Amino acid sequence: MKAKIYRIGEAATLLNLKPYVLRFWETEFKQLIPIRTRKGQRMYSEQNVLLLRTIRHLLYERGLTIEGARKVLGQYEDIYGSITGPDQPGPEIEAFCAGSGENTLHRKEDSAAIDVEEIITELTSLRDMLITGRR
After folding, report:
1. Do residues 53 and 17 lie in contact, with contact meaning Cβ atoms separated by under 8 Å?
2. Do 76 and 50 form a contact (C-beta atoms < 8 A)?
3. Distance of alpha carbon 26 from alpha carbon 71, whole angstroms
């Protein structure tokens, strides 16, 4: 079965975002590299959509700044090589956060510490929803 590829509008609708937000995030997150058609149209793989869901979750639901979200993704990528490769982030992310020494990140609105393990649990849940196609 061939992997699903989404046009920018489809991906934006799937994520309840505007296409310009996806284009902006491409400039802010080096891990987000959509496929380009010969005409230059952006096409998002399922791994790209997983990464976009993760970014959306970190920014909108967890309240991290772009820099904070970049840090979480960057640390994971430094350890495991890629967050958008053929192997989607899985249980190893728990080991990553447990051994990273980074137990907290900061919210943009009040600089209150949040638990990285809670983020991991929610990211794992998002990954599982993508894999199974259930909500």
Report:
1. no
2. no
3. 15
Backbone angles phi, psi at 133, to 5 degrees: 80, 10
| Residue carrying structure tokens 């970190």 | 58
What is the residue extent of each domain of the chain?
6-132
- For residues 42 and 36, the answer to whether their CB atoms sit within 8 Å is yes
Q: How far apart are CA 69 and CA 56, in angstroms?
A: 9
Residues 6+ apart with CB under 8 A from 113: 104, 105, 106
Tokens of 8: 């920018």
Give the burial class of 21: count Cβ atoms within 10 A of its Cβ; 0-12 exposed, 13-18 middle, 19 or more buried.
middle
Nearest C-alpha neighbor of 109 from the set 65, 55, 71: 65
- 8-15 vs 46-56: helix axis angle to the nearest 10? 40
Q: What is the DSSP letter of 88?
A: -
Q: 6-132 — its CATH code?
A: 1.10.1660.10
- Which tens digits make up the pLDDT trace of 62-116? 888 999 888 888 877 777 666 654 444 444 433 443 443 343 344 344 434 456 7
Query: In 10 A of CB 48, how many CB atoms?
Result: 22
